[in-house]
Amino acid sequence: MNNQLQELPYHELSRLINLRTLNLHDNLITSDGLPDEAFESLQSLQYIYLANNKLSVAPQFLPHTLRIVDLAANCLTWLYPLTFGHKPGLRSVYLHNNYLNNTGLSFDAFNGSDAVSTLILSNNRLTYVPQNLPRGVVRLHLQNNHISRIPKGALSSQGRLRELYLQNNYLSSEGLSHPTFSKLKSLEYLDLSNNNLTEVPAGLPANIVILHLGRNHLKGLPPERLSRVRGLQYLLLQSNALTTSGMHPEAFAHLRSLHTLHLYNNQLDGIPPGLPRRVRSLMLLHNQIARIGLNDFATTYALTELNLSYNRLYSAHIHRLAFRKLRLLETLDISGNRLTLLPAGLPTSLQVLNLQKNQLNALSPERLVNLTVLKELHLAHNRLKISSISPGTWHELHGLKVRQEGTGRELSSSKVVLLWIQDRQKKMHGEQQVETKPLQDQVALGLGFVGLITFGLGWGGTTPNRPCT
């Protein structure tokens, strides 16, 4: 491995009749350098690793003793029937990052190899879900292809399938027949994100635990589409076109195990009706929500994390008792709205309160009273002045922690409170700079340290294939 081999020295290998593992990944081996008879004598071979080479077609014959075959990151366009077929012990096949289309993946490619449990076909050029896949497959990766449909019956024999990855394709609702997923009785994880679906697929199996439907074109949630999925725990519906009126009040009625619901970046103008009673994490950021009524959260007793940032909320449109039932709420994010005052009736269980990028112009003790376990209070980018903070505002905030910007150190004291009131620079859009008081005046008001709580974000990347030349 990690050499510059362009062909397999099969004459030398032919004498290694007891060889069990052959690792040749990260070389320059081409299909011409891998003759059909290369593996004929290796009848004890169980593991072969040829990833990241320059193969354009798979080996025509591989030993029937194989358990794991890795041909990822090559230039494959074709598989032969006996490449993976008739291998009763074969368990894992890795074919991601190739150039396979449905023609190159023959109907009988896995005949006689029904014990395959892991099949990775992501990042290829498939236009529909292949048929006649191994019956024993447990994990099937088909993401990042060009799949626009799932033929009827294509998944009808995969009763052991637990994880199905179909994200980043071109699937439409018309390309899914009603029984597409209904036979997958063991399915627990289904990722259909970043496709062209306009409605939740019908016939979803009851055992799904995690359902990804983000980045599609969903406009509504009818009551019957999720009613059978009673074991659902994570429902991810972000970045669709969902409206409040399009979400039926009974859409979540049977989801008694659901604890995480992502509805951010949709077109909601109000809190959705009929929220799951046991939901613990609710993401509603980046919508158009303009008000919170008395009973919008009246049944979500278990909620511990609520994100309402970047909506259109005004202080006058948040009912003073809106949060009265949220006695377990630990994190509340209302940043990026149009609040001029802190909301009334905040839960005493709050540990993190984010009010950045609003229009707050005053702070008073009664809005923060009893928040004795609050650890983080974010008030940056508002209109606060020292003179607008009433005396005694901080007296109850014994647990607040301060993190000094750039050091990562935390300061904690019953008398020391972090309030980064303004950034000492002109605000965005040419707004007038906020009045700044000398540090000693802030200390006199009980502000023992001026700092900033900071968070870091990172993005992962992928390593591209070696070019096929």
From TrEMBL:
* UniProt xrefs under InterPro entries: Leu-rich_rpt, Leu-rich_rpt_typical-subtyp, LRR_dom_sf, SLRP
* Gene Ontology CC entries for this record: extracellular matrix; extracellular space
SUPFAM superfamilies documented for this protein: L domain-like (SSF52058)
PROSITE patterns, per database record: LRR
Source superkingdom:
Eukaryota
Q: Which keywords does this chain's UniProt record carry? A: Leucine-rich repeat, Repeat
What is this protein's name? Podocan like 1
